[in-house]
Amino acid sequence: MFINRKSVAALLGATSILLLAQAHALQSEATDTTRTLNNGNLVLENIPEIPERIGEQLNRFQNVRSAAFREFTSDGDAIYISTRFGDVAQIHKVSEAGGYRQQLTFFDEPVGGISRQPNSNTMIFSMDAGGNEFSQLFMLDSETGDYHMISDGESRNGAVVWNQEGDKIAYQSTRRDGRSNDIWVMNPNMPEQAELVLAAPDGSWWGPVDWHPNGEKLLVVQYRSITDVRIHELELAEGELQLLEGSDVGTNANFPLAYRKDGQGYFFTTDQFSNFTQLAFRNTETNEVRLITKDINWNVDNFAMSEDGSTAAFTINEEGMSQLYRFDPMTFAFTRVEGMPIGVASGLTFSPDGKKLALSINTPKSPTDVYLLDTNDQLTRWTYSEVGGLNTDNFVEPELVRFASFDGLQVPAFVYKPQTEGPHPVIISIHGGPESQYRPYFSSTVQLWLQELGAAVIAPNVRGSAGYGKDYVSLDNGFKREDSVKDIGALLDWIATQPDLDAERVAVIGGSYGGYMVLASSVHYSDRLKAAVDIVGISNFVTFLTNTESYRRDLRRAEYGDERDPDMRQHLEAISPNNHVDKINVPMFVVQGENDPRVPVTEAEQVVAALKEANKTVWYMNALNEGHGYRKKENRDIYEQATVLFFEQHLLPKD
């Protein structure tokens, strides 16, 4: 853990915040009031007026930007990135390292995935409306800025994969019935002739990954759950579907990556032979599987291969940090790339000539930026994202710790501590998923809490988290759901043993499944908490599974349990926080997006109503133009300011 001394001025600032917090605590939640902000799109209930000083304090933290790699230009001399200079992220072109960012799109909604047409600078991008996640596909001429929609304007579309000739795309769409995750093929110049090539036979997610070099087959992924992922090959002419990896038993995860360019097999990651996902190659002529990373006991989580198939690269997720390797697709030899920044890498893509590897790198002290690696492993930074004038030397890097849970399980957690003397109040940040993982990404929000609130931040990877093997990720499934909540109880026990942490002042915050964890922790540990922030969280598993969008319902049943089964339904009702509001005795801040297709707004509405009826302290924020989380800066800014005010009033004061 690397820490720097904080100035005396900052120390005095923290003291003044504490005094102001005590003053605000005397005012608090007097009346049931509702008001709107941001042109009526942000509805606030029972949230006090946010003092101007908070906006001023947070201004620099809220003006941090990032830049993510999206594509190379067709000649490989420039790159396309996504970054935000207005309210949402748009596509920009950068022609040289550190160069000017030329904005190409100017929409009110953020641009999603991008896929460039081979041998052209025309690209397809996706974009939804108001966070509803029903993304449409658009063709964009990057030279003129002209664009037009090529999807039907109603269904949910994505996972675009161009064939080698650049005259067809395969993509995933719910176009057939609004529910099924089917695979379609289209000539983008004739979208009206789009052809359904695979009608998904069940409620799992099906998507194209790669075209066979002969152009006659597709490598297809079928995702049923994080521990049941299957690989198929679709023969396009006859529609014949062949299962390549996985089985109806559904005990392992196999993710297709790419065909080898000689057409003799395909690369994939699998946990068939290990607790972790290994890089493998199956020779389709001999049916032999070659395990490439059999001696690395961490998940392979990124892969890229050059257009000519002569070179490749992959990363592993080692304790949340990325390690980059170069890889020869023909000999299977790989070597670790030394001297890379310590952080999280994503977006690996080779230039058209295979001589440059682009990747987005995020570190605990710097937001995501784009780097290019040459054939001599020389790394060049291409974007320099703004950090709002903040001195990142003062940013805190986390320490990785492990604590014992109720059954002896060692649970990993990243701990950020302020550079001042404790004991510090604590904010426990719980990730969503649940099949996700907290990784030490740059977070201006975490640094804001450290510097402006003087609070320590702990981000645990409770059981059920990804990144620690398939056994670990399955420890919270079905009837074992509340075992992950007990991990939070064990973390509270661990906090009480740390002299520089204040076990009497602890808050929990989390989004999506993390929001459920916040609500459940409030049910079980209200006597040990001072504040709770539930962001787009599940309040009742039965109503959630009933109301979540149909295209993802079966996927969630695989994780949480099938509410149609009487025994499971009884269990889900028994552990749903909305049925135990009487046990919640901690101030609650509920944050929601009206258009959320994953965790519908009704999940927030019902828990807020129940808390109000029980005369509990509850703040409620609902953005009418957002979905599963806030993507528009004006909404995020108000949310972050309200969260600071909430923590000032309920976490910082000492009894």
From TrEMBL:
GO BP term (any one): proteolysis
Q: Which residues form the signal peptide?
A: 1-25
Molecular functions per Gene Ontology = serine-type endopeptidase activity
Q: Tell me which Gene3D superfamilies the record gives.
A: alpha/beta hydrolase, TolB, C-terminal domain
Keyword list (alphabetical) reads: Hydrolase, Signal
Keyword Hydrolase (UniProt): yes
Pfam families registered for this protein in UniProt:
Peptidase_S9
User: Where are the bilayer-spanning segments?
Assistant: none
What range(s) does the Peptidase S9 prolyl oligopeptidase catalytic domain occupy?
441-651
PANTHER family named among the record's database cross-references = DIPEPTIDYL PEPTIDASE FAMILY MEMBER 6 (PTHR42776:SF27), SERINE PEPTIDASE S9 FAMILY MEMBER (PTHR42776)
Q: What's the name of the protein?
A: S9 family peptidase
Q: Which organism is it from?
A: Pseudidiomarina homiensis
Taxonomic lineage is:
Bacteria, Pseudomonadati, Pseudomonadota, Gammaproteobacteria, Alteromonadales
